[in-house]
Amino acid sequence: MTTGRKVLKAAVIGLGGMGRRHIAALDAMAAQGSGVRLAGVCDMNLDVARELAGSRADDRQAGPVSVSDWRELLLPGAADGAGIDLLCIATNGPSHHEIVLAAAAARIPYVLCEKPMSTSGAKAREMAEACAKSGTRLAVNLCRRFLTRCLLFRQAVRDENVAGRPRRFWGLIGGGGVGCVGLHYFDYAAWLFDARPVWVSAELTACPAPNVRGAQFCDPGGQVSVGFECADGHRFVGDFELSEDVPRASRCLVIGTEGVAEFDDFTPPPTGSASAGARPVDQRHVVKTRLVQPEPVALDHGPALDLVQATRDCLLDLVGPYALSTSGAGIESVDVVLGAHLSSQRGGARVALPLTGEALALDVPIT
Questions:
Q1: pLDDT at 298 exceeding the cut of 90
Q2: Which domains does the chain possess?
């Protein structure tokens, strides 16, 4: 670490599985000399927060401040009197809105919010606007934008154009909730081709199983179709299988004008893979009604899925000089989820995106 560089004081709210990954990501940043220190932790169960803080204390310094009320971390004198510089929000979706607004009001310089950004289109937009006005840099942890496997696949299908222009994106994802799990893949399909969602149609589970995170949450699965538009006006459709009676998986298929590319970001190597079959370059002028034997294209599928690595890289981007804007993508992905609920209520009718008018007020306690 460069001498004299300010050490960012970080705090993590929510010490479940994802919150602990945030802590591991912060530790990885520190190990790389990025100038960050865990100064505060918060969990509704104070014993959990105290135990974690105690485990990090040593002879050189005390462990992080431990609290059960996240508001204490936002006070100017929190964490050794100098306040928090970097706030990680790893709680469930319904709490994100209030915490981010409070962080903006406290002028916390950097905030990383877990997905979903919020539980309504209106709230997500209010969060982004509040942070923009206060100077708080807000990021949403849309981790597939930072996973090595996903970056390699994006390079192949977008930059190297192995399958041509996208016509269809197909995702076999299985149960897990349209908001909790499906949202990742709605964003993934858009990010692969720098596209934005322009409509959604869905049939969600009418009587979903009890949510594993608590009865207060509502996050059914189902079948969702999303229309995407690229910057140049090219459009393609994404179909997402998220039914609750389908086992969790992560197979994604890009059907393009010149071939097909397949990707699995869930199964560890060597089983997990990425592959493509496409028309030879010297045969791409042949009309598509003529059969041309596709050739296999070798793709590098990269290492196993690593959420700590992805969160670390998202944090590094957030505090870096050229932060990518993930808050806009966070809003778009929330719009897809809420639009899917509206569509399902309307018998599968298409709902235009971005949400507008009364649709922005729909609030569903997704996780």
A1: no
A2: 8-142 (3.40.50.720), 145-308 (3.30.360.10)
